[in-house]
Amino acid sequence: MQEERLTLEVCTHDIASCNICYAHNYDSENADMIGARVDKLYELKIGDQVLTLCDKCLDRLRERLAQRFGAENENKASGGQIVLFTGTEFTARDKLGQSYRYRMIGAEVTHDGLIRLLNLDTNFLTYVEPEWFRQRKIKVIQKEAT
Ligand SMILES: [Zn+2]
């Protein structure tokens, strides 16, 4: 089996810090130390590179990706995958013409990459696969203010 070259996992090292903001997962005597004390860090592996990221910076990365793909989708006018970030509200119309309103709650960091949505019409929480978006017409209503 070939080793996965793109992974995102919870960092298991006792002493680590975020590559972006220097948030660290250990207590330090040094009061001048840069970065916040955090409980959890993530390891993003891309090929031979391993980046350590905190929750906040991981969120920023996700927003950067969303903006990047959002811009490309606007160019394409329709089709292509829309990447939504937490807080985005949208309507999804399926093949039968049924339209529901949803709010993106977040993406699960699992191998399935399930996406958590709140159906605003029924108030039910639902988990969908990325494929779900490709099977529906998605229209973004509102993006969370940044
Ligand atoms: Zn950080």
Keywords:
alpha+beta; SH3 type barrels; three-stranded antiparallel beta sheet; 146 residues; five-stranded antiparallel beta sheet; 2 helices; 2 domains; binds zinc ion
What report would you give on this structure?
It is a single chain. 18% of the residues lie in helices and 32% in strands. The chain has 2 helices and 8 strands. It has helices at residues 55-76, 130-134; strands at 6-10, 41-46, 49-54, 89-93, 99-107, 115-119, 124-128, 137-142. It is elongated, with a radius of gyration of 18 Å. The mean pLDDT is 84. Zinc ion (ZN) binds next to strand 3 and helix 1. Residues 18, 20-21, 23, 53-54, 56-57 line the site of zinc ion (ZN).
Would you kindly provide a brief summary of this structure?
The protein has helices spanning about 55-75, 130-135, and strands spanning about 5-10, 40-45, 50-55, 90-95, 100-105, 115-120, 125-130, 135-140. With about 150 residues, it is an alpha+beta fold. The radius of gyration is 18 Å and the shape is elongated.
Which helices and strands occur, and which strands form pairs?
Layout: E1 6-10, E2 41-46, E3 49-54, H1 55-76, E4 89-93, E5 99-107, E6 115-119, E7 124-128, H2 130-134, E8 137-142
Antiparallel strand pairs: 1-2, 2-3, 4-5, 4-8, 5-6, 6-7
The structure holds zinc ion (ZN).
Zinc ion is lined by residues 18, 20-21, 23, 53-54, 56-57.
